[in-house]
UniProtKB/TrEMBL annotation:
Its EC number is 3.4.-.-. InterPro entries: Peptidase_M2. Zn(2+) 2 binds at residues 367, 371, 395. The active site is at residues 368, 497. CDD domains: M2_ACE. Belongs to the peptidase M2 family. The keyword Transit peptide does not apply. Its cofactor is Zn(2+). Chloride binds at residues 208, 506. It comes from Drosophila grimshawi. Pfam families: Peptidase_M2 (PF01401). It is an enzyme of class 3 (hydrolase). This is Angiotensin-converting enzyme.
Amino acid sequence: MKLLLVALLATLALTQALVKEEIQAKEYLENLNKEQARRTNIDTEASWAYGSNINDETEKKKNEVSAELAKFLKEVSVEIQKFNWRSYESADLKRQFKSLSKLGYAALTEADYAEFLETMSAMESNFAKVKVCDYKDNTKCDLALEPEIEEVITKSRDPEELKYYWTQFYDKAGTAVRPQFERYVELNTKAAKLNNFTSGAEVWLDEYEDETFEKQLEDIFTEIRPLYEQVHGYVRYRLRQHYGDKVVPEKGPLPMHLLGNMWAQQWSDIADIVSPFPDKPLVDVSDEMVKQGYTPLKMFQMGDDFFTSMNLTKLPPTFWEKSIIEKPTDGRDLICHASAWDFYLQDDVRIKQCTTVTQSQLFTVHHELGHIQYFLQYQHLPFVYRTGANPGFHEAVGDVLSLSVSTPKHLEKIGLLKNFVLDEEARINQLFLTALDKIVFLPFAFTMDKYRWSLFRGEVDKANWNCAFWKLREDYSGIEPPVVRTEKDFDAPAKYHVSADVEYARYLVSFIIQFQFYKSACMKAGQYDPKNPELPLDNCDIYGSAEAGAAFHNMLSLGASKPWPDALQAFNGERVMTGKAIAEYFEPLRVWLEAENIKNNVHIGWTASDKCVSY
Ligand SMILES: *[C@@H]1O[C@H](CO)[C@@H](O)[C@H](O)[C@H]1NC(C)=O
Ligand SMILES: *[C@@H]1O[C@H](CO)[C@@H](O)[C@H](O)[C@H]1NC(C)=O
Ligand SMILES: *[C@@H]1O[C@H](CO)[C@@H](O)[C@H](O)[C@H]1NC(C)=O
Ligand SMILES: *[C@@H]1O[C@H](CO)[C@@H](O)[C@H](O)[C@H]1NC(C)=O
Ligand SMILES: [Zn+2]
């Protein structure tokens, strides 16, 4: 009895000491969050100066500032070890400490970290500076990916011209950086181990706070795959009609240069030659936008208007002052890949985008503004929580609005679409167009990280790195390069995010959950009713719905302060990621495609590719 009392008192004393420590820890974290925001702001300014104006001076400055921040983070991680945070009562304090204890690349030694930064700059600037010669005029050699090469890849229907640009680009954006990429993988692995992860794959997956996340993605993908194969088979069938049997084989993988996109990640730019009902109108308002004198500024103003119509936050004056929304014409090199930036002050948020006046860029504008809305919604939180519930959430916000903008209903409302009759055939055309972006993207996104996971985990022999990439692209997407590639080539870094060390599963997650968000937002807006054929999911417009806006506000204002299932629950009451909403959206198309492919005797699936040879 007495012993028990002593034990009890001892526990009490310990608890009291802990309570006292928690009070101190709280104050420590408050100061630390402020200091981190201040330092990250300086770091972000240097990155912005570099990304919008690539030269030796801005690169040097950026790397210096990053090295300084890394040094500070390392000191912090030592300090943090003095706190017994794992035993704290407060879940909030524990969560903040856990997040702060992740060091990332800053865990590397000073020399390794400096080399890492140089390696990354080399890859990023190589990607940003790629220039190729004109196919028809070999004296004109200043064509950049954005806008010249993309213009050809999306519009040309000449297989030889497309093959030429494909090869030029992959040689210069991919193969050229193989040595740097090999070093990058080594340093990535070193950093992961220093953070007590088995590899960089686990570092990336840790962001999703769920041990079974990789398996969940695989399972959802397996559910969607039959629909993907129907789309794939139908596109091959229609491409054969357009290009003939010699260019497109009946049962083989699709030659990727014919798909309207350098990486074959989305195929909507070839909708004009593959859409189900060629005589029915296809929603493409690009020409109308040009005709009506649209400018990048107007496109961003429209995006801002969409958010405010939902009672969400208006873009602050700083956004308009400091963003770059058109490609500068003064000849400087810059990273044109569209991006949204948070400077961790109040209201200093920016976008950098070489905007052109097209329908797909209008969607990109909304995508980037989704990031900005997230930044603004969580800017009241401590620094560690000023990020998405998981990386996929951040990517999904703007896309939900884009889904709405792309509907005939909305495009008519804003005067870009006129006299459009949405009958059953036009509806199938529209769903097919959306599938060319949203369904086609799923296997692409998955392979970007399955590939890098496997390299980080050391599962692929270096002598086979390039063909391992094409094998995954073949297995998951059923596509192949236009020319035979070997291990003398190296193609993965020809995708921006691979050259720039950006995790990609976020986009796969986004493309799945954005349909969960969209479906719920549409129901809240009274725009979708599964029992009412007058209110189908694929023509739902959430513009002007304060109810849908409130759901976004509830989720976005949480930032990363709670695990992502809590954030999802704040939006619509659900707690799991599921492929059900995306399947529901495309159900009418699935039914139509299956019948149509049987009717036309279309082969489903694909035979093995012989377009990569390792020796
Ligand atoms: C680009 O960077 C250079 C070197 O730091 C600087 O002199 C120049 O003013 C910058 N250009 C712009 C437009 O910021
Ligand atoms: C450029 O094209 C011309 C005409 O086709 C050809 O004679 C010449 O050799 C080419 N030059 C290069 C550098 O490829
Ligand atoms: C990794 O684990 C070792 C040994 O358990 C430990 O000393 C070290 O602090 C850990 N590092 C991090 C960054 O958690
Ligand atoms: C708009 O949002 C504000 C702040 O989130 C909220 O207080 C207000 O009730 C909302 N208005 C409507 C009409 O929902
Ligand atoms: Zn994004």
